[in-house]
Amino acid sequence: MDNGFSVGIIGLGMFVPDNVLTNKDLEKMVDTSNEWIIKRTGISERRVLEKGRPSSDMAYIAAKKALEDANILPEDVDLIIVATITPDYLTPSMACIVQDKLNAKKAAAFDLNAACTGFVYSMTVAEQFIKTGYYKNALIIGCDGLSKAVDWEDRNTCVLFGDGAGAAVLSAVEDGYGIRASKTGAEGGMGKLLTLPCYHFDEVDMEKRIHQNKRVIWMGGNEVFKFAVKVMEQSTIDVMNQAGLCMDDISLIIPHQANKRIIDGAAKRLKISNDRVIENLSRYGNTSAATIPIALYETYKANKIKNGDNIVLVGFGGGLTWAAVLIKWNKKDLEDKNE
Length: 339
Hints:
Layout: E1 5-15, E2 20-22, H1 23-27, H2 34-41, E3 45-47, H3 56-70, E4 79-83, H4 94-102, E5 108-112, H5 118-131, E6 138-145, E7 163-174, E8 178-186, E9 194-195, H6 203-207, E10 218-219, H7 221-243, E11 252-255, H8 260-270, H9 281-284, H10 291-301, E12 310-317, E13 321-328, H11 332-338
Parallel strand pairs: 4-5, 4-6, 11-12
Antiparallel strand pairs: 1-7, 2-3, 6-7, 8-13, 9-10, 12-13
Helix pairs in contact: 3-4, 7-8
């Protein structure tokens, strides 16, 4: 549908808690070591939300910053999507909580569960609403408080995850810029490789967990690793092909920050140099749906993105899911602020 405009990012925001949990701290909590964690994951530290504080606080702060950056008011927002697997409530949704905190009374609001892929999924959903003219401005947020969902006695998972939120405002941009291609996918048959139970507790699934602790993350790491490297490569190729581009045309890839070995493996298969692949997981760990928007925000604030750059955001996650979007960058207002 050619309506004379494209859909792109006009505002960015992020939030991470002040509390830092280092690998040295984890050595005192579980049978692990700083050297082992860094070698296996690339993570040195992660942020942990204060006990008793709702995850929606992170989403709200990131969202508020994104609106300020986009120079729009809460009443200008038509749609709020929060990508999360750690909502404060099943109902009300985190998106409705954020809507209330922002006083964005005009906005429709719902949560989206695609685990770590959720932010990229949300971008593709919001794009459809804006492209058809149904909505004008969409606020999308990736927010997870995974410190509430890990078993701190399970060294295979507790070393991986952290808390944080990243947000973006999507709206119409000059035609030929913004989102140029997207790809979403899922393989539900592999879903049991990464589980976080809610109301149904499968006996076989429970046996995998230490002390049969029910509401914590369990992951089949080796199988997820192989899946992740493969789908990150393929979905990146898919969006490049859709846009009629090749790897030489791509300025940066911003992948889901789950494990340095996964990122390095995908980069190797794509034959792209490490300096064109963004990593910040050493400081934050895996914040699930928040990793990509946080990395995107920090990358642009560091002046590593120029207008006209082609950028791929690519993720994978529980479900199992995967997604990628290719963006031709044109966020002039933030570039002006950084100059």
